[in-house]
Amino acid sequence: xxxxxxxxxxxxxxxxxxxxxxxxxxxxxxxxxxxxxxxxxxxxxxxxxxxxxxxxxxxxxxxxxxxxxxxxxxxxxxxxxxxxxxxxxxxxxxxxxxxxxxxxxxxxxxxxxxxxxxxxxxxxxxxxxxxxxxxxxxxxxxxxxxxxxxxxxxxxxxxxxxxxxxxxxxxxxxxxxxxxxxxxxxxxxxxxxxxxxxxxxxxxxxxxxxxxxxxxxxxxxxxxxxxxxxxxxxx
Length: 235
Hints:
Elements: H1 2-20, E1 41-46, H2 52-63, E2 66-68, H3 71-80, H4 84-88, H5 97-107, H6 113-130, E3 133-136, H7 140-143, E4 149-155, H8 158-169, H9 173-195, E5 207-210, H10 216-231
Parallel strand pairs: 1-3, 1-4, 2-3, 4-5
């Protein structure tokens, strides 16, 4: 009985969230809607502990590109006129409607999962028009133009990722193992919830690199070479 009530409330909250999002009207009859343009970018999706963020920053330095990882949280918060903390609640995390409603009441700030996705798409597309950037995670390999985005995936054996996470976070190996499992699970759920996709699907990527087998500087060279081969030298 209680479970049924919770589901009803959850469904209703999701409906409220959808209704409050502004959907732009279609263009007048006979008027062609403007097609957004994008300049070449690099997207890096990563298993937890596979050093995707570190690699992305190295690639950005090699190419002289801007780097966007946690920076995206600030960009979304600025666009939505909310605190970064409100955005971090949904950043690569799945959230249910009931949880969203409770958090809004507690925080006194109206920012929900559909808002996050709406502003995430807008920010990513703005970065796409800007070009010359490396974007880490957040569904960028799906939202951005696939023909103008080099889509990279970093992965590594679980034990290697746990050891790296323990060292990075200064925790025990057991704690790191728990963190790696949780973050991978949350990111997988994030992609299923918002994009109805399996983030492990190799068809989503142009290039997959095992960062435990290839030293990071060489990984960066591989990505830079792939970018230049596909898009030419950045001008």
